[in-house]
Amino acid sequence: MKNWISPFELKRRGILGMNRRNVSYISRYNNRRQFPLVDNKLKTKLVAEEAGLAVPKLIDIVATQHEVESVEQNLKDLDSFVAKPAQGSGGKGILVVVGQEDGLYRKASGDLITLAAVKRHLTNTLSGLHSLGGRNDVAFLETLVRVDPVFSSFSHEGVPDIRLIVFQGIPVMGMLRLATRASDGKANLHQGAIGVGLDIATGRGIQAVLHNKLVTHHPDTGADLSTLTVPNWPSLLRLAAECYEVTELGYLGCDIVIDRDRGPLILELNARPGLSIQLANNSGLLPRLQRVEATKTKKMRIADRLQFAMENFKHDDTWETLPAF
Amino acid sequence: MNKIGPFLALVVALVVIGLGAAQFRHTTYNIPWLPGSETEIWQVEARIEFDARGSAAQVYLTLPPDQQGFAMVSEATASSGWGFAIEGDQIQRRAHWTQRAPQGRQVLFYKLDLAVSDADTWELPPPAPTGTIIWDEPYQTAVSHVLDNILPITADPHTMALQLIQTLNRQPPDQNVSLLTSAYTGADLMQRVLQTAGLSARAVQVLELEDGRRRQALADYLQVWDGQQWRLYDPAVGEVTKSTELLLWQTGTPGVLEVLGGTNSRVSFSMISQSRSSLLLAQEQADDFALSLYNLPIAEQSMFKLIMLLPVGAFVVVLLRVLVGIRTSGTFMPVLIALAFLQTELIPGLTSFIIVVGIGLSIRSYLSTLNLLLVARIATLVVLVIGIISLFSIVSYRLGLIQGLTITFFPMIILAWTIERMSITWEEEGPKEVLLQGGGSLFVAVLAFLLMDMAVIEHLAFNFPELHLALLGLILLAGRYTGYRLLELKRFSAFNS
Q1: Which of A141, A178, B212, B409 could share a disulfide with B302, CB 3.0–4.6 Å?
Q2: B353 within domain boundaries
């Protein structure tokens, strides 16, 4: 049967399932106490900034309705900004403004919205519309990340982001997520974004999947995905590995973007990173996680950890040319 | 916590203790494994409440007479600080509570166990002679007219009673009937009319037995002596033949409850049907085993009948989420919906659930344009849900669909939250995800319902509560399951090569 796979085959390929991820990795390696730090993007940002990690610059925090009313004071001089809920999930409630024209704000999609609409968005954010469980939330404004020219032809809209699974401080698997028109600027694979598996050693693309099927070209821009290499890879890898020290989370998902001017920036962290990264890489997480578990990684310095990752998780072939599915 | 040994030992211990205790109770107390092989027992509990005035108080409660269809197993009273005695003869017994100076709100219980039996045929007492019934004008004339219409077309007391019931219930009522019903009520009126015609008739009070009902009142029925026996009539319908669901409680004229030295008195009845073997009944009468749900007041027992089913529903949710990977909107929402289905039955429940949530979602989509704060939005939805449910009940009652009325069993706050959550999912992840999660929830709810609705499960859950320990063991085990979920075999099917 083409649409189903036997559990033994999955096991043989070392695919990590949801239950195993929850029991053997998240609940074993991630201290519950640290969850609020990553579930709250504002906290993550502040802590990361304090530790000297690169993040998009914080412009303003909007915590009360009163601050919403006077927000235009802070928006006045800004050309572009991004408004986010501190506890949003799955990319919900993110408002990207790329420019101002005659008192109107231009969204990333090209639509113009009024100041009132921006305020309404912030009010909704405060009331918890975009947040997990509908709890009251805080909104914050940060600088807009400018797409690195390397990626400009690869993304339909928005900035491509790189998801790295960092286990015990060692990056074990990575993927680049490209928004498509169908995914409406969102970077989740199940919403129709493209996932490009990345070679941990070099940052080169391995293969690309869209809706679980191999693709070679971006459906909207037509760019050839096989030529894709993430620039600044070593510093990006280091940035991800450093998140381990900051969060103390053993099993961590790091979402990193590359800014045209500032290089890799941490966008957000995730204590329960998803499993689709395995599809993008056409390989399972389990063997890699077990390799790390079998090694004494506790006392490794960061340079050693990166070395370990590059040696152990490098991809042999370059672009996967075979129709693997 | 990573050691698998102690964990497995705990699971095994739970399962063994659960099964062992159940087996022990089965052999020792003869609680049968399966429902059906038992005597049906009605436990009826009368709850008397009143405000004492601080002076000497006496409470009289009329007790049901011996009657066909039921055999009394035991009776008891729970009323600390009160003197208690049972007075009267076999025809009309009365419970009598006394206390010197009670203060404040008083609650007295009288508990009666009746076995359903068709063996005993009680010799019912012949009717007492009735005095002449005196009617004031213009009722006298009205009664004569009514009787003049009935008498020529009836042959005996039975047909006469039937005709009278028909006449009094006819729509639209005739002028004489309207006059009479404006001054007298149902059973009482019929009793007087029939007595006027020289028959022996009496208004009686009857308890309608229905499993798990709480806070019920007695219903007024009519009894007519046909020469050999008393026959029972429902004043709104006609003769009642199947009497195993009706318990004759009071046949005399004084009220069921009489309170001297108190105010605001009322009596209400709770009842529950239990399946117990007759041997167990003997056991229980010999020595009360303290750790049993049977010892709770009946109102609480019927609560526990439902509560004890919850773990079964929770287990279904665990299995379907952990082993299959079905997404639901709200983790245990499906169990609560399944619980509601138990009251409404499946098809009416499903239909009304979908209708309410559907209407709710369409109204909610308008609400989202109003830009309300979360709490206000949920509160608005609660009000709307109640509105929809009321409207639904009224419309379905008008259409003659009695089942539509059971919609009130749905937990309204849960419905409101479900609508809210689905609406947010709709806005953020599209209608497909709503269908997926909604469908998933309903699938889990239906499966949980089918399981909880099985007579065997209900029987085991209530009569062998210790089996829940075994269930707990299984739930713990599922909590440590690290294998793949069924739906992951589809999700990762791309790895097939």
Answers
A1: B212
A2: yes
